Automatic annotation (TrEMBL):
It is a multi-pass membrane protein. This is MFS transporter. It comes from Enterovibrio coralii. Signal peptide: none annotated. It holds the Pfam family MFS_1. The chain crosses the membrane at residues 45-63, 70-89, 95-117, 129-151, 157-179, 209-228, 240-258, 270-289, 295-314, 326-347, 353-371. Residues 1-379 form the Major facilitator superfamily (MFS) profile domain. Keywords: Cell membrane, Membrane, Transmembrane, Transmembrane helix. It comes from the Bacteria. GO terms for cellular component: plasma membrane. Gene3D superfamilies: Multidrug resistance protein D (1.20.1720.10).
Length: 383
């Protein structure tokens, strides 16, 4: 099986996060242009991830049928269509619709990117590759927030959507030229209902899905609420975008530490549990310093711990579902992104950054206390 270029997979897996962080600085401008409140503007994030969840399911299922490469290209095309609609929208409801279409398309970068990695790698090697991907993705907040800050300052939210459409077009061209097909032939016939029932009975799937949802809430809760927090503290959009350096540094440090830990230790449960504890400490720090720019210091700790934990959870979550990686990834992604969409909707309503992070970290700590090993039996698709 031909191994896809890691630089391309990194770009495709970074794309959903860049697409969201570049949009974060534009939230206040969006609120001003359409005359809506901050919690209504933040609603676009909740809607985005709910549609993203559906996209993860659909594209993950399709990539087992039509192939990884074809599904990836179709998703990127869909994302570009959503951005084009956002550019011409003259009503906030149309912006929401555009975000739904864009989110549905952007999901390919996450679910199919991970599926391709699971096609090519396995075991400790897969965990190491996920760590490398995590270190690459670490620059996403810098790219997204800085680009979003510059674009919003000079061209408003429209500049952001133009840039996103151009990015999708670029990835489409490179994927068409460089992305090979990695779908194993035995993934053609899968009973989705049987797979869903099997996964629903697997307690580790639910715990890992909730863990990943909370890990993402810790990050995207910041992106949804922090722009208005910084605005309240008197900082400009550009100044808020500089926070991407702190988050990227934390993510990079976390990925580097995790890569070292995975090479030295086999007890991934303990690594995840300790990381969740660090997330809780950092979240409490953000709450205490919520009226100061210094909240970025404990936020760095949150992101660092996140960078340590999430590759280990993602790398092992579907270890027993390798033969149906695309469909299993679709169902798994649907679970945790729906959880994230609901959680972001609640967080956006209350607009309390510290409280959101603390609750998410507490749930993660509880889930990490007893994570069962994934060795109960491998799902066998219908032949």
């Amino acid at each position: 099986m031909k191994t896809p270029p890691l630089w391309l997979l990194s770009s495709l897996m970074m794309f959903p996060q860049v697409a969201e962080t570049i949009y974060s600085p534009a939230l206040p401008d969006l609120a001003n242009v359409f005359g809506i409140s901050s919690d209504t503007a933040s609603l676009t994030l909740s809607v985005y991830f709910s549609a993203f969840a559906v996209g993860v399911f659909v594209w993950g299922r399709l990539c087992d049928v039509i192939g990884r490469r074809t599904a990836m290209l179709a998703g990127l095309l869909t994302y570009g269509t959503g951005c084009a609609l956002a550019i011409v929208a003259n009503d906030f409801s149309l912006v929401l619709l555009a975000r739904v279409i864009a989110a549905f398309g952007a999901a390919v970068g996450s679910v199919i990117g991970q599926t391709i990695l699971r096609d090519v790698f396995e075991g400790p090697e897969l965990a190491k590759v996920f760590s490398i991907m995590g270190m690459a993705v670490a620059i996403s907040p810098v790219l997204g927030l800085l680009a979003g800050g510059v674009l919003t300052t000079h061209w408003g939210y429209l500049g952001v959507f133009f840039a996103l459409m151009a990015s999708a077009a670029t990835l489409f061209v490179f994927s068409a030229m460089k992305l090979p097909e990695t779908k194993p032939s035995f993934t053609q016939r899968v009973s989705l209902f049987s797979l869903a029932v099997n996964m629903a009975k697997d307690l580790s799937i639910w715990r890992n899905a909730l863990l990943i949802a909370m890990f993402n809430l810790l990050l995207f809760g910041f992106y949804a609420i922090a722009p208005f927090t910084f605005e309240r503290l008197g900082y400009s959009t550009i100044e808020f975008s500089y926070s991407g350096f702190a988050l990227a540094a934390g993510s990079f440090i976390g990925g580097f530490i995790n890569k070292s830990l995975v090479q030295r230790h086999n007890n991934l449960d303990r690594i995840v549990a300790i990381s969740c504890g660090l997330m809780l400490v950092g979240s409490l720090g953000v709450w205490v310093l919520s009226d100061s720019i210094w909240l970025l210091a404990p936020m760095m700790l949150v992101v660092t711990a996140n960078g340590i934990a999430i590759p280990n959870v993602l790398g092992r979550a579907l270890a027993n579902y390798r033969d149906v990686a695309g469909s299993a990834g679709a169902l798994f992604g649907l679970m945790y992104y729906l959880m994230l969409g609901v959680a972001l909707g609640i967080a956006g309503t209350f607009q309390h950054l510290g409280g959101t992070l603390v609750i998410a970290a507490l749930i993660a700590v509880i889930c990490s206390l007893r994570i069962p090993q994934l060795s109960r039996g491998v799902f066998s698709p219908a032949k």
